[in-house]
Amino acid sequence: MENKDKKELKVSAIKNGTVIDHIPAKNLFKVISILELQTIDTQITIGYNFESKKLGKKGIIKISEKFPDQKDLNKIAIIAPEAKVNIIKDYNVVDKKTVQVPDYVEGIIKCMNPKCITNHETVTTRFDVFKKNEVSLKCCYCEKITDQEHFELL
Amino acid sequence: MKNKSLISIHDYSKEDYLKVIEVASEFEKNTHKYGDLLKGRIVATLFFEPSTRTRLSFESAVQRLGGSIIGFSEAGTSSVSKGESLKDTIKTVTQYSDLIIMRHPAEGSARWASEVSGVPVINAGDGANQHPTQCLLDLYTIKQTQGKLDDLTITMVGDLKYGRTVHSLLQAMSNFRPRFRFVSPKELKMPQEYKLYLEQHNIEWSEHEDLQSVMTDSDIVYVTRVQRERFSDPIEYERVKNAYVVHKSMLEGTKPNLRILHPLPRVNEIHIDVDDTDKAYYFQQALNGVYTRMAIISLILGLK
């Protein structure tokens, strides 16, 4: 219990809002971008490169006074499938959520096929999720697979 | 199929394949009976990259049915050369035509076109991705030569790695309990994803380096071109280039119903001495392209 408390203190507690934990450190800034946190006007605390038994290094985001809906949270599942979301009210965790890899992804990711039409014209990318563990996406246009290693945000 | 674009072979079901074959067969039998079927219809053929054979085959199909054609045969003669986007070209041509047939070098371009078009789109090739009418004419030809599609032994020869026709044919034929034999240089083997696909569908396949050994039990030998530029090592190309050439002498002892198919153009992978044998079927296959495209066009326009 004591250890946990110390760890929590590395990023100050929030009164009300959302905590997203267990984000692979390498994808932390991508998560920030997908959730468009740069456009939010409330306080956001970000922890980067924290030790994690499961992930090696992880990131954590605490967003005050905002409660992203499940659909938006699921968008981050393609790059942070193990993320845990805690909803905080009056310093207490009132709800715990996980993120689910969706069946279909629109926008967000760039198709890795340089010959794909989405890389030549203004076309919103669309993918069917081809594999959910170690997420890979099948482009609805060129039918090529983009794997996690090659995920590049739009 | 009515009013539905044909972009990928996956857009059609087994029943759709059989319907196309049935209608194509009727057009073959009574080609001249349908000279007015497309009367008053305008079909646009938009070829953003040249492909003489495919374009002529489609245009022949439209004209045999009495339809009119507008379009261009290379991007240089269209407003693309002025910087117009594909979307704007399609949005405009939609106003002028009842159906769009397009070839474009970008993969996925035909799907995108079908999403912005107000009329159905037929994909006549989008880069290395899909060329579904080629696959349907291959199915038609196989049915025509074998009297059936089920339980056939199909040998695929040549570039099995990059050849989109073999990949589409493999997937379409998987509906009909085939056995596949793959013969290719080791650089150009059938990709793992397609082998996995066959395993998931419980379809027998085997890989061979020697063509002659698998000729004897084949019903169809489907030959594709091995291109020099696919090889990282030119010496390797020189070493294997003649190993995958079909000669007349190789036809001895093969099944009477064996037919040699090729999507064309051929370079040297089928020796010309095969042309005069009754097992050569690639030119009829090209003719079948016209009947098959007549069938697809009239089904999409709801005229059959």
Q: How is the topology of this model organized?
A:
The complex is a heterodimer of chains A (154) and B (304).
Chain A: H1 2-9, E1 17-24, H2 28-34, E2 44-52, E3 56-64, H3 70-75, E4 84-89, E5 92-98, E6 104-106, E7 126-131, E8 136-139, E9 145-147
Antiparallel strand pairs in A: 1-3, 1-4, 2-3, 4-5, 6-7, 7-8, 8-9
Chain B: H1 14-29, E1 42-47, H2 52-64, E2 68-72, H3 86-96, E3 99-104, H4 109-116, E4 121-126, H5 132-146, E5 153-157, H6 164-173, E6 179-183, H7 192-200, E7 204-208, H8 211-215, E8 220-223, H9 234-240, E9 259-261, H10 282-300
Parallel strand pairs in B: 1-2, 1-3, 3-4, 5-6, 5-8, 6-7, 8-9
Q: What form of chain A results from the Cα inertia axes?
A: elongated
Q: Taking Cα atoms only, what radius of gyration of chain A do you get, to the nearest Å? A: 17 Å
Query: Roughly how many Å is the radius of gyration of chain B?
Result: 19 Å
Quaternary structure annotation: heterodimer
Note the main sheet of chain A.
5 strands, antiparallel
CATH topology of the largest domain in chain A: Alpha-Beta Plaits
Biggest sheet statistics of chain B: 5 strands, parallel
Content-based structural category of chain B = alpha/beta
Global structural class of chain A: mainly beta
| The CATH top-level class label of the largest domain in chain A | Alpha Beta
- The portion of residues forming beta strands of chain B comes to 5-15%
What's the count of strands of chain A? 9
Q: What is the percent of helical residues of chain B?
A: 25-40%
Number of strands of chain B: 9
Note the gap between the termini of chain A. Answer: 41 Å
CATH superfamily of the largest domain in chain A: Aspartate carbamoyltransferase regulatory subunit, N-terminal domain
Series of secondary-structure elements of chain B, N-terminal to C-terminal = HEHEHEHEHEHEHEHEHEH
Largest interface: A-B, 16 and 17 residues
Total helix count of chain A?
3
